[in-house]
TrEMBL record:
Alphabetical list of Pfam families matching this protein: SBF_like (PF13593)
Species of provenance: Massilia norwichensis
Membrane-spanning intervals of the chain: 41-58, 70-89, 101-122, 129-157, 169-188, 230-256, 294-321
Keywords, ordered alphabetically: Membrane, Transmembrane, Transmembrane helix
Name this polypeptide is given: Bile acid:sodium symporter
InterPro entries: Na+/solute_symporter_sf (IPR038770), Put_Na-Bile_cotransptr (IPR016833)
UniProt xrefs under Gene3D superfamilies: 1.20.1530.20
Source taxon at top rank: Bacteria
Annotated coiled-coil segments of the chain: none
Length: 327
């Protein structure tokens, strides 16, 4: 089997996500167990962002800062283009999807870009890797502040932060996500080498934290009747809308980068960093921003878009990797 075809097969983490959703559907946590897991989940999210801070090399992030035009395009694509596309989809979505799933699509559109996969695909496609490291990292840092503000502006209902205002959402994100991230960055000079040596083990912590959030989120939603509200036709329609959203984002990112005269290497970076959405950041943010009963519907579009973007971008990266170098 060729490499592009192998990348179309869902990875192990996606399989674990599906198993977690299935487990929550059959054996959802309830009562005291749900309360204990809720507290464990909060601690796991803090650990997740602490490790993100400890893993991020400031030197690698600063190395691509000079290409400011590229970074502005990526940020505009992530936090301006996507939310506008989400709003533009409302007439199409109305009557096709439950309102809660449209909230999930809007939330998806407010999320920052991925870090690891954006950099990996950019490297595979022979793009500007240094700029990809900087753009993807900056997108996640900016998203800590911008995503809750966008959620407050675009999504009137569903926010669970005290008072429900965008400022309260930002403060909640800062407290639960940014402070652990900054602590990891502060301690990197002392623990960075150890973190770099144990990346496979820490990957398990990263993914385990996300799986725990998914389990508790879907458990609460199942207890609230998630699968009675969501039909197979709605699920298929959601998958189609995610495909359309990704296709438009990829097309616009390509068109804009060419109109602005970027090199092919920079274009690749813009396309991958500007069209992807982070599951690793999205699931913890949803846990902070939304009521527990709404979490299942909110993170379902994020999970689906995550797998679709990986498969599509793998094919694009393989195609770009085969191009002939410029003489």
């Amino acid at each position: 089997m060729s490499a592009p075809l192998r990348r179309l097969i869902p990875d192990a983490f996606t399989a674990w996500l599906l198993c977690t959703v299935a487990l929550a559907s059959v054996l959802p946590c309830q009562g005291q167990t749900a309360q204990v897991l809720g507290k464990v989940t909060v601690a796991a999210i803090g650990l997740l962002f602490f490790l993100h801070g400890a893993k991020l090399s400031r030197e690698a992030m600063l190395s691509g800062l000079t290409n400011w035009r590229l970074h502005l395009v990526v940020l505009a694509s992530t936090f301006v283009m996507f939310p506008l596309l989400g709003l533009a989809m409302k007439p199409v979505v109305s009557g096709v999807l439950p309102p809660e799933l449209y909230v999930g699509i809007l939330f998806l559109c407010t999320l920052p870009s991925t870090v690891q996969s954006s950099i990996a695909f950019t490297s595979m496609a022979r793009g500007n890797v240094a700029a990809a490291v900087c753009s993807a990292s900056a997108s996640n840092f900016v998203g800590i502040f911008v995503t809750p503000l966008l959620v407050g502006m675009l999504i009137v209902q569903g926010a669970s932060v005290p008072g429900g205002s965008p400022l309260d959402a930002v403060l909640s994100i800062v407290e639960q996500l940014l402070l652990p991230f900054l602590a990891g960055q502060f301690l990197r000079p002392w623990i960075g080498a150890w973190v770099d040596r144990h990346k496979p083990m820490l990957k398990i912590v990263d993914q385990g934290s996300i799986l725990l959030v998914v389990y508790t989120a879907f458990s609460e939603s199942v207890n609230e009747g998630l699968w009675h509200k969501l039909s197979l036709s709605s699920l298929l329609s959601l998958g189609l809308l995610c495909c359309v959203l990704l296709a438009i984002a990829l097309g616009l990112a390509t068109l804009i980068s060419r109109r602005l005269g970027f090199s092919r290497e920079d274009e690749i970076t813009i396309v991958f960093c500007g069209s992807k959405k982070s599951l690793a950041s999205g699931v913890p943010m949803a846990k902070v921003l939304f009521a527990p009963s709404a979490l299942g519907m909110v993170i379902l579009p994020v999970m689906l878009f995550h797998q679709i973007q990986l498969m599509v971008c793998a094919v694009l990266a393989a195609r770009w990797a085969q191009r002939k170098p410029l003489s």
